[in-house]
Amino acid sequence: MDNPGTNAGTARALAVLVPLVLLGGAYVSQYGFGLYPCEMCWWQRYPLFAALGLGLLAFVMKPPQVWTALAGLAILTSGVIGGFHAGVEYHWWQGITPCTAPASGVNVLDFNAAPLIRCDVAPWTLFGISLAGFNFLISTSMGAAIVALAAYRK
Fold first, then answer.
1. Does 81 fall in a domain?
2. Helix H segments across the chain?
3. Quick check: 76 and 139 in contact, CB under 8 A?
4. What residues contact 54, with CB distance under 8 A and at least 6 apart?
5. Is the pLDDT of residue 153 over 80?
6. Kindly report the CA angle at 124 between 112 and 50, in degrees rounded to 5?
7. CA–CA separation, 20 vs 153, rounded Å?
8. Is pLDDT of 107 > 60?
9. Measured between alpha carbons, how far is residue 87 from residues 97, 134, 150 in Å?
10. pTM of the model
11. What is the number of structural domains in the chain?
12. Would you say 37 and 45 are in contact if contact means Cβ atoms under 8 Å apart?
């Protein structure tokens, strides 16, 4: 088993911490600040769930570098989806889901209906970057770093 101070050990730790922090942030945004996810937001979460599981497997399955690299690739996948979603929010291109179309046939008197969350409107930005944009920046950079660290041999 590799030492936690090595590149492989750092990659394994990041393979668990990065999706944990990103998912934690998503749920704090959702339940703490009322920023409910749209369909494309959920698409970004699914690879992070997989990455968390793969990252944990890297601590118990051999060879750990393979599981770590797979977790990094899953994080990268979330970032690519986030980049696509950010482009839809910034109106650089059209989305591929109904949540980018105007609401029609919505019964406003149905109080049990889930809120309609549009994919092409950023509910929150910081310095002009949406949550999907931040996911793109964080997930692509960290996913690439995890894959590189997992593949690197001293």
1. yes
2. 7-27, 33, 39-57, 64-89, 131-151
3. yes
4. 15, 67, 68, 70, 71, 74
5. no
6. 75
7. 26
8. no
9. 14, 12, 30
10. 0.82
11. 1
12. yes
In sequence order, the 6+-apart residues with CB closer than 8 A to the CB of 82 are 44, 132, 133, 134, 135, 136, 139
Q: What is the pLDDT of residue 32?
A: 93
pLDDT reported for residue 75: 97
6, pLDDT greater than 80: no
Q: Which residues contact 119 (CB under 8 A, 6 or more apart)?
A: 38, 39, 40, 41, 85, 88, 89, 95, 97, 99, 100
Residue 130 placed within a domain: yes
Q: Is the pLDDT of residue 30 over 70?
A: yes
- Which CATH number do you get for residue 123? 1.20.1550
Q: Which residues form the domain of 43?
A: 7-93+117-151
Q: Flag whether pLDDT at 70 surpasses 90.
A: yes
**Environment class of residue 131 by beta-carbon count within 10 Å: exposed (0-12), middle (13-18) or buried (19+)?**
buried
Domain assignment present for residue 99? The answer is no
Q: How far is CA 111 from CA 30, 33, 98, 117, in A?
A: 19, 21, 21, 15
